Amino acid sequence: MGSAFKRYAAMLGAVAIGVFAAAEARADKLADILAKGVVRIIVFADVPPFGSVNASRELEGFDIDFAKMVAQSLGVKLELVQATAANRIPYLLTDKADMNIAAMSITAERARQIQFSAPYADTSLAVYGAKAQAVKSGADLAGLKTAVAKGTTEDLVLTAVAPRADIMRTEDNATAVQAYLTGQAQLLAANSVVVAELAKRTPGKEFDFKFALRRAPAHVTVRMGEHNLLRWLDTFIFQSTLNGELDKLHVKWLGGPMQPLPSL
Q1: What is the pLDDT of residue 255?
Q2: Which residues have a Cβ under 8 Å from the Cβ of 227 and sit 6 or more positions away?
Q3: Where in the chain is the domain with CATH 3.40.190.10?
Q4: Does 15 score more than 80 pLDDT?
Q5: How is the beta sheet containing 124-129 ordered, strand by strand?
Q6: Nearest CA to 124 among 245, 262, 223?
Q7: Angle at 126 between CA 123 and CA 130, to 5 degrees
Q8: Which CATH number is 124-215's, of 3.20.20.300, 1.10.10.10, 3.40.190.10, 3.40.50.1820?
Q9: CATH number for domain 29-122+217-254, candidates 3.30.420.40, 3.10.580.10, 2.70.150.10, 3.40.190.10
């Protein structure tokens, strides 16, 4: 019995060592970024003021500047990976990027696939349209087409609050905006900061607030299990809040100082 117990204990020990070795051998994204000297960050190219292409065909915006701050703090080169709202999570899961900084808000459904950092920008989601449209809630959307980018939080929330609404889901934010501007849709579900920028660029179009969908702070996201990278990001966001760098980005791109953000 003693000999059998010893063999059993030895077998358990070997299994434990194997499991530990496998865990140790697992790639660590933060260490990988530092070793390669490059960080690949997902951003938007069609969602001003977070990310868009300027007249010089260069990417600019809040998230672009924030991505540059991340790369500089890490001491590595920056590779921007353009994506649509619907592609952000797939790009992370297939390792086409190391992290996402394309204005993503948190949902319990998304948290089953990816992990969220502390928030770095505060925005809200709502439905907008012409002043003449008598819309005050999801119940008033019947008979009116509402444009929204597929895979965004506003898409998810709008579907939940107005399951019978005529929702025009587009492949990206730019197409949703264009659908509203050209009259293909009577309403637009979008981020409040994005709508404020649209109102400046298209003064002939009305963006009257109809009803709120939800508050939507933006978070950096990473693949599930990348705890070291996530901890570094939380530390970086905390530091950038304390030293005023995030506040400068809010003033530059979002039109006002940074307000206190909720903790995760």
Answers
A1: 86
A2: 115
A3: 29-122+217-254, 124-215
A4: no
A5: 166-170, 145-149, 187-191, 124-129, 208-215
A6: 262
A7: 130
A8: 3.40.190.10
A9: 3.40.190.10
Q: Which tens digits make up the pLDDT trace of 168-199?
A: 999 999 999 999 999 999 999 999 999 999 99
Contacts made by residues 172-179, CB under 8 angstroms, sequence distance 24+:
172/46, 172/84, 172/85, 172/86, 173/44, 173/46, 173/47, 173/84, 173/85, 173/149, 174/46, 174/47, 175/149, 176/147, 176/148, 176/149, 177/147, 179/147
pLDDT at 71: 98
**φ, ψ dihedrals at 171, nearest 5°:** -70, -25
Amino acid at 63: D
55: number of Cβ within 10 Å = 6
Is residue 230 over pLDDT 90? yes
The model's pLDDT over 118-147, given as tens digits with 9 standing for 90+, comes to 999 988 999 999 999 999 999 999 889 999
pLDDT average, residue stretch 68-82: 98
Q: Helix 29-36 vs helix 227-242: angle between axes, to the nearest 10 degrees?
A: 70
Give mean pLDDT, residues 61-84.
Answer: 97
H or E stretch covering 114: strand 114-121
Q: Rg of the Cα trace of the chain?
A: 22
